[in-house]
Structure formats: structure tokens, C-alpha cells
Write a structure and sequence with these properties.
By secondary structure, this protein is α+β, with helices and mostly antiparallel strands. It contains 3 helices and 7 strands; from the N terminus they run ββαβαβαβββ. The protein starts with a strand and ends with a strand. The model has no long low-confidence stretch (mean pLDDT 92).
Length: 148
């Protein structure tokens, strides 16, 4: 019996895949647990439509991420930091603070986990920070730190 998988199954295959299984296995395990549906003409057509829709949505998200990356290239966020004797700074600028600056200054809601900095910013000046917008798109944002 041919079955369309609705979930990833370790021994059978990935979600959306059409697999051949024994009739008893399909009737007693796969279909009752909701892991898959029988590969009828209607279900195959639904799978094809869903796949096309998912590809279209993924393409739109990729295009939106590329556009946002281009917009972020020209923008920068500015913050201040206290500086003591000899140019030593007090504290640092973390990814959480950069996310808050993006929200307040650029009106962009960026998750702090998507901001790629190896270590917090501890110096005055401009630093370029990477932002992972999509698995295939990484944008760059300038963070300008001024003396308070």
C-alpha cells in the first residue's frame, strides 16, 4: 500500500514522501496514529498543491530577507557608553541591547539570537555586526558607539 507521510518517521522516510508499506502496517499503525494518509489521487493532488504553496512561501521569505538585508546595509544604530580615564569603557553593548536599539531607532523587531557578535562591544567607534535574517541571508548593521 502506498502512503504519504505527514511526519518524519525514522524507519520510513521524511514528511511529504510517498512510501510503500505493508497493508497491515498501514491500517494498524500509520493511518490510526496520523503519521500518514493513503496515497489516493485526491491526497496526491493535495500534496502537490501544498508543496507548490510551501515553495512559493519560502521564495517570498527569501526575497523579503534579501530586501531587508539591502536596507540594513545603509542604516546604523547609535548608542552611548561611559568612558573613564585612559579611554577605558564601563560595561559593554550586547546583542540584547543592539536588538532594543533596532526596535527603538529603526522600528525593526530583530531577535537577539539572530544577531551575530562574537563578544560584546567594549570600545568607542563603529562596529559592523552580522544579523542572520534567513538561513541563506546574513545582513550587516553598523553599530556606532559614542562617548557619554
Amino acid at each position: 500500500m502506498k502512503v504519504i507521510l505527514l511526519e518524519d518517521v525514522k524507519s520510513l522516510g521524511k514528511k511529504g514522501q510517498i512510501v510503500e508499506v505493508n497493508t497491515g502496517y498501514a491500517r494498524n499503525f500509520v493511518l490510526p496514529k496520523g503519521i500518514g494518509v493513503e496515497a489516493t489521487q485526491k491526497n496526491l493532488n493535495d500534496l502537490k498543491l501544498k508543496t507548490a504553496h510551501d515553495e512559493k512561501v519560502a521564495k517570498e521569505k527569501l526575497e523579503a530577507a534579501k530586501k531587508l538585508a539591502e536596507d540594513l546595509k545603509e542604516k546604523e544604530v547609535t548608542t552611548t557608553m561611559k568612558v573613564g580615564e585612559g579611554g577605558r569603557t564601563f560595561g559593554s553593548i550586547s546583542s540584547k541591547e543592539i536588538a532594543e536599539l533596532c526596535k527603538s531607532q529603526l522600528k525593526l523587531d530583530i531577535d537577539k539570537k539572530k544577531i551575530l557578535i562574537k563578544e560584546p562591544i567594549r570600545s568607542i567607534g563603529t562596529t559592523i555586526v552580522g544579523i542572520k535574517l534567513h538561513p541563506e541571508v546574513t545582513a550587516e548593521l553598523r553599530v556606532k558607539v559614542k562617548e557619554a
